[in-house]
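Hi R.,

Quick one: here's the Alpha-1,4 glucan phosphorylase sequence you asked about.
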Amino acid sequence: MLEQKINATLMEALIDEEISRYWNTEPHSASTTQVYRALSTVIRDLLLKKRNTFLKQFTKNQQKKVYYLCMEFLTGKSLRNNLYNLKIEQEVSEALKKYNVSLEELYSIEKDPGLGNGGLGRLAACFMDSLATGNFPAVGFSLKYEFGLFKQKIIDGWQTELPDDWLTTSDVWLIPRTEERVIVKFDGKIREEWTDKGLKIHHDYPTQIEAVPYDMMISGYDSKGVSLLRLWESRSLNSIDMNLFSQGDYLRALAEDSLGEAISKVLYPSDNHYEGKILRLKQQYFLVSASAQNIVKVHYGKYNTLDNFSQKNAIHINDTHPALVIPELMRIFMDDYNYSWDEAWKMVVDSVSYTNHTVLSEALETFEDNIIKVKIPRIHMIIAEIDRRFMDEAAHNLGDRNKALKMSIFGYGKINMANLCIRGSHCVNGVADLHTEILKKTIFKDFNEYTPGKIINVTNGITHRRWVNQANPLLKDLLTDILGEEYYLNPEKLNLLKKYKNDQSVLTKLDEIKHQNKKRVAEHVSRQNHINIDVDSIFDIQAKRLHEYKRQLLNAMRIISLIIDINEGNIADIVPETFIFAAKAAPGYFRAKEIIQLIFALSDYINKNTFVKKYINVVFLENYSVSLAELIIPAGEISEQISLAGKEASGTGNMKFMINGALTIGTCDGANVEIIKEVGEENFFLFGLRDHEVESIWNHGYSSIQYYQKNLKLRKIIDFLNKGINGKSFESISKYLLGGSAVGDPYMCFADFDSYMEIHRKASHLYYSDKMKWNQMSLMNIGSAGIFSSDRTVREYAEKIWGLTPVNK
Ligand code: BZD
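And here's the predicted structure, written out as tokens:
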């Protein structure tokens, strides 16, 4: 079917067939949802065929594959992406005329699968796209959460969470593979027996959970490649207690069932904050055990030996969440396939690699030693043995046991997952230059000295095909007119755009495109928030998870300062600005919710105050998701990337805004540093303390009060918060900023405030005094963004870490 060129007539026939097969109805009377499901099923089956052809090819070549293990894949919607990547949007659009429905309508029906929190999960999804496009054999493994990241609803300014039932429409993309289910075992006791063949492990497993795979295909663009995303669903094996059932105790009979099912019920909604909860541990072990069993089985089925395991399989752990794959592979190799410790260990280390995404101490995962011992005793035993051998070896090599102990996996009754990952991987990477350097100097210092060269950098990237070509079709058209289609597969070619930096007609077109995209957002804001925003004002956007270190509060402080100036009549420097925020806070993160409340209150205040509203406006857009990002990022003129230096590992939103022509107001943090290097400081609004300055001030005892006392604007902001906004006091935020029992303003908004105000003045002055210069800077940003494509990122992983080659090369 795929070999046949898809045209509108063939497409119609395929859709008709699905409609009559599923609903036994005439095509013209099918509902929009039925057409959506029928079309998606057709595309899914096309992809399945395409994947099978691809699979045959790399299987025949006996090529190495990468398995990417991640607790999150924030894929975004599938239909548009797959049609785009298969290059059949036109044909499908034509075919849909028969059903009286447009592609846009069908796109809007699909629910956005929220199988991730933020940057980490979205990165994994971009990688799947780029791997398929680059014809790399790749499988992603994750969980089929019944409920993805909660839907955010703001009620009276306060974030509330609603369940995300993404499966009600997106289930069409999943292919159940019940025949490939495996069993994951928990709890129980271990007995060791010495036989003439060595140590034999006996294990009883009272809790056995079935892992049932569901496959999602992700097509590459204009390539043979299709990535497979395999999502595990948990099901209780002892699904129903027939004894209880026959005694009429139906609820208790089913209780067992729900325990098993709970594992893949819901995504943990915290980013950059670990929770040492048992359910989270179970999710992690469930993912790695099911995946490792699957990987080993496929390998053994093909080669009839595991001796060449690490030559043929690269296993990547995305952050420490899948760390337990290291002991799990050891368990399988030793207990199920009788390899010795040393043989098994070599196979594990040679195949496993690990990416770190944070240096924040509250995000570094540790689990209670005891929890692991009780829930997965054999795994605990293996971790203990990994550590024992490591400590002996390191103490011997370093001649100092205390030094070795600093790298131990065990400490203070906890298991340090990062230390397990570093020990069990042949390569560890950070996600931006600065982040990797910080890793080497701080949390992984001892490891870096012990095994120099093991920690490397691979800077993050984004798929420009989704984030420009699909999300910003007007910009795509312009770029295609100027550069041709080559940049679709060679994003470095965007560089050629720079030749047009003095071309008035190109600059004007860029300006018009931005304006159209701003109008799209204004319509959305009017529908959703019932607020009219001025499309001629500068659009300043901060869209990302709500976190203290990302400093949405610094942005809010500036807004308050502008309100105060306007109210006092100090309007000489004031220009029209529209501030757009979108952010979800972890449900238990009180401070983050309070900051949302503050932003909401500011929005409310301004929209009730016609005088202030003449100049500035603030909107908070609910329920930030991939789809909302696709709408708002193309409209961004200022991209707020204002984390405290040294805290944001990389950022990827910064890259998405840049490639859509926004100018960044940013600190020297994460990948901002590399963005500046590419685009030049003259095309970036840099402000704030550098990471070493942050460290030095912090080490000398940061005191926000000192800044407060010296700075009238800060004092007025605090007064404003204390006085309250529309009758709601924000004293607790002012206390947080000034300190008391804890250090005030822990993310140093006060220290960076003046510099932030100043850079904004510079930016907005330029916007209103020399729009062509602004557009020129915007063009330079687009032209410099090619290097931040995830095509480049996955190529680097393939070469430097996985030893992977594309099919047919
Ligand atoms: O990963 C983010 C970092 O904060 C960003 O700087 C970076 O760009 C991206 C991609 O590398 N980290 C996360 O998104 N982390 C999480 O979402 C997360 C989720 C669960 C538990 C811990 C962290």
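The longest strand covers residues 207-219.

Cheers,
M.
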